[in-house]
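Bench log. Compound arrived from synthesis this morning; before running ITC I wanted a structural hypothesis for how (2S,3S)-3-hydroxy-2-methylbutanoyl-COA sits in the protein. Inputs:
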Amino acid sequence: MAAINEVGDLTIEGDVGVLTLNSPPVNALSAPVRAAINDGIRQAIDNPAVKAIVLICDGKTFIAGADITEFGKAPSGPSLFDAQAMIENAPKPVIAAIHGTALGGGLEVALTCHYRVAVPSAKCGLPEVNLGLLPGAGGTQRLPRIVGPEKALEMVTAGTHVGAKACKEMGLVDELAEEGKLREGAIAFARKIVTENRPLKKVRDLNEKVEAARGHPEIFANFRKANARKFRGFLAPEYNIQCIEAAVNLPFDEGIKVEQKLFRELVTGTQSAAQRHVFFAERQVWKLPDVPADTPIIPVNKVGIIGAGTMGGGIAMNFLNAGMPVTIVETKQDALDRGLATIRKNYENTAKKGRMTMEDVEKRMSLLKGTLALEDLADMDLVIEAVFENMDIKKDVFGKLDKIVKQGAILATNTSALNIDEIATAVKRPEAVIGLHFFSPANVMRLLEVVRADKTSKSVIATSMQIAKKIGKIAALVGVCPGFVGNRILAQRQREANKLILEGAMPWDVDRVLYDFGLPMGPFAMSDLAGLDIGWSKEKSKGETIRDVLCEMDRRGQKTGAGFYDYDENRNAKPSPIVEKIILDFAAKKGINRRQISDQEILERCVYPMINEGAKILEEGKAIRASDIDIVWINGYGFPVYRGGPMFYGDTVGLDKVLAKMKEFQAQMGDDFKPSALLEKLVAEGKKFQSL
Ligand code: T1G
């Protein structure tokens, strides 16, 4: 065995040279890895004993792409293209041996090999679009030559990881090796290639499938049309499509030039910077500085849920989906029956859409038990309370749980706003109390705010984070404060949105600006969807807000066909002249002189106070890092991932600009815009949230 460098070695096994890369954690194409490929292949070529070359990786995976941490830095070492050219132009067959995930640049390296062998558990993909990029090492030109333009369009715009068996069917992989025997399988395949004198298959020369698509621009037009809604606001999907178009319409080397030009535009742009930030933020969020990795985990095998309403039912489904038995408690039989029926209906609807079998439905339902007896939760490892948002009711429930549930169990509340330290005073084991704040619909929304109370133990925290992972959530650990992180920041935006429609804008203006900014829906359309009468009571209403007036007129939102908008029979919203008059009258009655408000002001008034509130949350230690706040807002409130979340967006705009605007608004409109001390400090030091 000859070491090429610190991450690569070349072993000669008879007439096969085996170049092994070993650069944990994912053999990313860092400069040393590129050098190992370049020099290792050359050495194998120069070794007369070698008839074929196998490229394989140690560790958990084949090359999982370019080293994302190198982006934005000065390039060093051999370029990826050099290494790829070394492989593709080798006078001896080079076989890629794939296990784990051959992704991005990793698959692009494999596509310059003459053949690919994989174990059945392996996956291949070009997920660069998830980083706001495109495959910038020939992937957009080579992939369609193997799988065809249609399939390539799907793969590069969805970033899917395709299983080895499917890759074999598509021709992306030439041979499947026995699981656990990749090295042997690849060497045997290499020898077969030599023995059978098979050609050095260069993917770049396989033009049949791209030429067949030439003169069929409808392939791309239909694809764009079918995905317009999904790709809204993103640059990368369109750029990926243009590259596949180039592969169909241009010679290989011209196509590569188009790919390179579009790649450079994306990699230097703000969208990719934002999406790369989110990539690392999604990995950082699980790291808890004061909860050591070896903190004892509480075994959780049985889960109890109190309340079979919308939230309770959705929460239950998460655990059933993870194969965990759930006991759900209600106070009345009809409420329990309704809750259980809703869960079954949700599953049956999913089965109708072909996304699960009826057998899966029955298996999940067989794990679910309904009861009216709180005592049935005595042996649960985790109990999650999802009852009405009222402190007295919550404390009463926790007081009862304290007497019933075994010691060592976790007592969690799904409250979205109440003080969990206060709830914990209802039990003798406050260290067992934690907030698990799910987002509606709880079986769909990916975010979970894990809310640590003053006395919550580290084991309960570590266990809750692990459970979150087990049920497929992304969890952010936050502290107790009104609205925790997500809703606390939401309140800033809602406040300003309500003020703006009094001062001169209309609900549909505010919604349009935030929709164009990339949010799935503006605040007023969202209120109409949720129902304007949540937390509203006819008896107490005094017409003090626009919402009060609308509810009093029975304009309660989509469900009544009218709210801030008027809705047609298909629930399509349109601006309402009635609401316009209500707002004008309301403002006049309040003596407000309405004025022209620009879209820029609407955006800044809605988003900058969110950033400022995020800074306050960090100041108070209610979130560990700024990127956690980004994760909360991207996964819980639809903040556009290509803006990186509110805190990253603040850094992108420039905190000095955010602060200056906040101060300007403060001077005009008061302390709703009072800048946080942290924001002032960062600007004074010329720093960003990312520097924290
Ligand atoms: N570069 C640098 N670090 C990476 C990395 C990468 N490509 N992929 C993972 N890591 C780090 C990650 O931050 C974490 O670090 C550790 O590895 C384990 O990752 C020219 C331009 C491979 C499926 O998009 O999807 O090629 O937190 O926790 O759950 O066309 O990582 O431990 O310090 O995610 O087992 C394209 C990205 C790049 C794949 C493994 N490739 N990676 O998942 O582990 S762009 C990708 C993943 C490109 C070319 C272009 C996943 C994984 P830490 P992990 P995992």
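What the model suggests: The longest helix spans residues 599-619. The chain has a mean pLDDT of 97.
ITC booked for Thursday regardless.
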